[in-house]
Amino acid sequence: MEPAYQYDIHLPANMDPDRTYPTIFTLHGKGSNERNMFGLVAPLASDFIIINIRGNLPLGAGYQYYELKSLGNPIRELFDQAVQQLEAFIHYATAKYPVDERRRYMLGFSQGAILSMTLALTMGDQLKGIVALNGYVPEFVKGEYSLQPVSDVSVFVSHGEFDSVFPIRIGHETAAYFQNLTPHLTFNTYQTDHGVSEENQRDVVRWLERDAGVHTNKE
To answer: Are 114 and 83 in contact, with CB atoms under 8 Å apart?
Structure first.
């Protein structure tokens, strides 16, 4: 199988050929690229496989996974295709690399967060957890997709209190939605605009360490 996406992979330096590793798949924001995501999870690189996925649609100097009709209004056909192709990519990478199927994580920012949350809802406990930074769940996903239970999925949602793209109320609405679906929800807000603060990044690293049961202590 030829994957639909180009990607950047970081394997642990001292890999044991007889074991599998927890794996983080990262999804960047609209107009960005896969290289911008690695820094968020770089402290975990000795214990996790990290796969940064590039959107397949060019946008300016960067990329996107789907196009929009307007802000918060994806072109449905492209969005549906992205969800299907990303799920296929996760299975492709799991077969190709020593990925621990029980500890697969999606981490996304903005457009990547939207897709990470959607994949949690469509894949259910095929994912161990997701990190969604400044995103939301589209209403058509909630109402029209075939959703899987996420009661066993760990969910970290964060949002900038001064987010000028997706207002903070969207973060609270997203957290409330997942609160009703899983007991494993962490929701934090940070004093930022549409971005990821150092405090947010540190909290994400600690959360992933704890949830995956690894202890890197690299701060």
So the answer is: no
